[in-house]
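Section 5.1 Outputs to date
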Amino acid sequence: MKTLLLAASLLFAAGLSGSQIVVFAKGEALTLEPNGPPPARPADPIKAAFLAGFEAEVARPAAFAAPDPLSAPPEWGRAVAGAGGTIQYHTDFAGGYVVRVALHGLAPSHQYILTLNGNPQLPGNDRLVDPVPGNPQERYFDFLTVTTDANGRYEATFGILLHPGPYGVRFYVKDTDDFKIVLYRDYFKFAVK
């Protein structure tokens, strides 16, 4: 599948809504090209159904919840002066999580990792991909590495294939230089139908 991106690193595309990206698994993402040919359909029926649902969602004006601001993390992260952003997401979606991400004030043309981070006391932690080093009960999912534009901005709408059930997670933006969290949204809830 030529349009399938492995270990994707994506530049911000100028436009009203940024890129539209489906994340099937860690290191497996597909960028939808608005004026390009339709993407090749995944052979896996679960992935194909999720892709079709996400395409239908982004083809019409989406009813996202109000934007949630991203802020500098507490002492366990690293503050970047002037950095900020928002996430908007659906509180439930069939087959996965749909989120619109807008970042600004970051280092220009620089790579950042977008992450969902769980908590052993909250739902969905057990359905995330990797254990946190030094705290194996807590799990996370680095779902994509992205690259800011020349002005330190990035914008995209993601459909992230996840196992069904409720989730209570944090959203992280991590710098690839030192893996420190530079922006985050504290715990919020959504459900995968």
